[in-house]
Amino acid sequence: MGQNKPPMLGRVLIWLLVGILIAYALQGVFGVGQQDVTQISYTTFREHVTAGSVRRVTVKGEQIRGELKTEAMRVGAENDTTRYKSFITYLPSFGDDELMSALRAQGVEIETRPADDSSWWPMLLTAILPLLLIVGLGYLFITRMSSQGRNIMGVGKSKAKLYDRSQEETTFDEVAGAEGAKQELREVVEFLKEPARFEAVGGAVPKGVLLVGPPGTGKTLLARAVAGEAEVPFFSITGSDFMEMFVGVGASRVRDLFKQAKESAPAIIFIDELDSIGRHRGAGLGGGHDEREQTLNQLLSELDGFEPTQNVIVMAATNRPDILDPALLRPGRFDRRIAVNLPTARQRAAILRIHAKDKPLAKDVDLERLAKATPGLSGADLANLLNEAALNAARNDREAIENADIEEARDRILMGRERTGLVLTDEEIDLLAYHEAGHAVVAAALPHADPIHKVTIVPRGRAMGVTQQLPEKERYIYEREYMLDRLAVMMGGRAAEQLVFDTSTSGAENDLKQATQLARRMVLDWGMSEKLGPMAAGGERRQVFLGEEIAHQKNYSEATARQVDEEVKAIVDGAYARAKETIETHRDILDQVAELLKEREEIDGAEVTELLDSAGD
Ligand code: ADP
Ligand code: MG
Ligand code: ZN
User: Fold this and answer.
1) Which residues are catalytic?
2) Rounded CA separation 519/513 (Å)
3) How much distance in Å is there from the Cα of 212 to the middle of ligand 2?
């Protein structure tokens, strides 16, 4: 930003005003334009006339100006002398009957003017000056406003910045980690470059791509890299830009932005910080959010209003997907979500290498080790860390960044982080690693469980760690055995905590909730309980708000309800027992997986399976 046009017109106006004011003042006070005019007494004037030394006079009302044939001298009060040729004097109020004949006798040229004809331009000025002042000040106000990025003239215009390739030099190479996101975004770029190739194979590329991830993970950076890589116009705007200052402009800005983009298609629109407009409608308190709702509605209708074939792709970024209006996420809008996660140790090392490229590092600096010592830090934190380290080095008059500078910076940043609760102690990491390893080992060992895709102790969303399972095939029918194994996997985390540390943590909350829910459905809806037998006690499920909430209609007796609860508990307990048994059998594998997790923070499911298989041989 900040490339405001110099307010040329404004400056010209100011100088004009100042000039006019000065001229006006001079005219009034000193009577400029009548230089060398000396005021003389009427007597002196009459003497000049009698002496025949006056060449001409101009009479205007009482005022007589005149010019002498030769210079005369006037002696002032303090004996100072003034030589003059032009003079001014005033007719006595009682008049001078003889003056006319005297002048005529001397052959003086006489000019006369109407008494009230003061010269025309001061008159004009008094009329025009206030007007000029108002216009000038108004203009100043406007330019001042627009230099702060608020242009009164163009309020409704979108403030989207248009990047062109020559300006944006960020490329995907500057984004470390985030491989998945980069891959998907590359596809988007390719589509815009060669839509024909995708259309030929009937590939539909999404209209809306939403980058989702915690702050500082490089979402904006990725978008800039897309701009740098794509050879198409790239319109970028921040959500809050839609909202600022003038009521009623957000919606028209959206309209304008999409219009511009369509005109220059193929093109990319990027809306950063989408949550500032895309918040759940009606969620605001006090009803003061009409502005945002209008803007959001406009955005929704623009998203619906163009076809994928128009070659406009809308990208957006947010770190609060949870508060987005669900309407934004419906198919045909932002239907492709790309997760940008906090980096793992290996990815942190890569990010550090990128940001250390143009910084001189002393020999004792080990970026790999630093990466391992900075769990939970985002890309932005890491970039910041190296900058701080560089500042420390400069402060200490060093030519290169030494390990001590880095340690100091790291401590400061981690300390700031601890307050926000994102940095785990070693014990917490231990617990977390065993918890996830528990899920993973149970999943790998039980025959009916879905294979593991990834195990990670890098926080994802609200979860501190995740064991991701991917079903081998799409499932429509779930067997009891599958359900039971699944339940055991859910309990694996808690079981490992108990077995290894003889404690339980709050980290299992979600596991327990999910397991209880699943067990309940097994009993109530699927008739999978041995005691209750094949009956669906759950009754009708009714959709309340568009599938968001499901209300239960109880149509069973209190006695049955008690039985249901007992059955649910039995199933969950059984699952826990199986999980515990499984990890006891494979305790060595559990330890190995936990170790791997602590070291690398993320491992592939296949590694767990291999460990288990090789142990079984
Ligand atoms: P977000 O938009 O997700 O909050 P940004 O894209 O603004 O994060 O990231 C801020 C800065 O942090 C970037 O300009 C970059 O210097 C650094 N950064 C973040 N993630 C990465 C990454 N994956 N690789 C390299 N640098 C990164
Ligand atoms: Mg950002
Ligand atoms: Zn868990």
Assistant:
1) 436
2) 10
3) 10
Task: Say how many Å lie between the CA of residue 436 and the centre of ligand 3.
Answer: 6
Q: What is the pLDDT of residue 118?
A: 57
Q: What is the pLDDT of residue 236?
A: 84
Check if CATH label 3.40.50.720 holds for domain 426-616.
no
* Residue owning the nearest CA to atom 15 of ligand 1: 380
Per-residue model confidence (pLDDT) at position 587: 94
Residues linked to residue 271 through DSSP beta bridges, in sequence order: 237, 316
Ligand 1 environment, Cβ below 6 A: 175-178, 213, 215-221, 317, 351, 354, 379-380, 383
| Cα–Cα distance, 109 to 88 (Å, whole number) | 16
Query: Is residue 599 helix, strand or coil?
Result: helix
Q: What is the pLDDT of residue 573?
A: 94
**What's the CA gap between 410 and 394, in Å, rounded?**
16
Band of residue 144 on the pLDDT scale cut at 50, 70, 90? low
What's residue 148's pLDDT? 46
Nearest CA to 586 among 456, 495, 514? 495
Residue 245 clears pLDDT 70, i.e. is over it: no
Alpha carbon distance 379, 357 (integer Å): 15
User: Of ligand 1's atoms, which has the minimum distance to the CA of residue 380?
Assistant: 12
Q: What is the pLDDT of residue 463?
A: 67
Residue in this structure with the two tokens 């032009």, named with its chain if needed? 86
Annotated binding site: 213-220, 435, 439, 511
**Which residues belong to the annotated binding site for Zn(2+)?**
435, 439, 511
State the Cα–Cα distance between residues 312 and 271, nearest whole angstrom: 13
What is the distance in A from the centroid of ligand 2 to the CA of 218? 7
Mapped onto helix, strand or coil, the DSSP state of residue 71 is strand
Q: Which residues are annotated as a binding site for ATP?
A: 213-220
In this prediction the pTM is: 0.59
Contact status, residue 284 vs residue 249, Cβ threshold 8 Å: no
User: Which CATH number fits the domain 32-118, given the four candidates 3.40.50.1700, 3.30.720.210, 3.40.930.10, 2.60.120.280?
Assistant: 3.30.720.210
- Fold classification of 161-339 is Rossmann fold (3.40.50)
Prior bond of 331 cis (ω within 30°): no
CB atoms within 10 A of CB 270: 27
The mean per-residue pLDDT over the stretch 360-385 comes to 89
Q: Which overall architecture, per CATH, does domain 345-415 show?
A: Orthogonal Bundle (1.10)
Burial 115-146, CB ≥16 within 10 A → b, else e? eeeeeeeeeebeeeeeeeeeebeebbebbeeb
Number of Cβ atoms within 10 Å of the Cβ of 17: 16
Tokens of 240: 């809050």
pLDDT of amino acid 550: 45
User: Which of 169, 221, 382 maximizes ligand 1 atoms within 8 Å of its Cβ, making it the mutation to test the pocket?
Assistant: 221
- Position 282 scores a pLDDT of 57
Q: What pLDDT does 231 receive?
A: 76
Which DSSP state fits 349?
H
Query: CB under 8 Å to 240, separation ≥6 — which residues?
Result: 273, 276
Closest to 197 (Cα-Cα) out of 207, 183, 187, 206:
187
Ligand nearest, relative to CA of residue 272:
2
DSSP percent split of the chain into helix, strand, coil, nearest 5:
50, 15, 35
Lowest mean per-residue pLDDT among 177-186, 255-264, 412-421, 538-547: 538-547
CA distance 128 to 200: 69
Domain-by-domain residue ranges, the chain? Answer: 32-118, 161-339, 345-415, 426-616
Range in 213-222, 262-271, 365-374 with the lowest mean pLDDT: 262-271
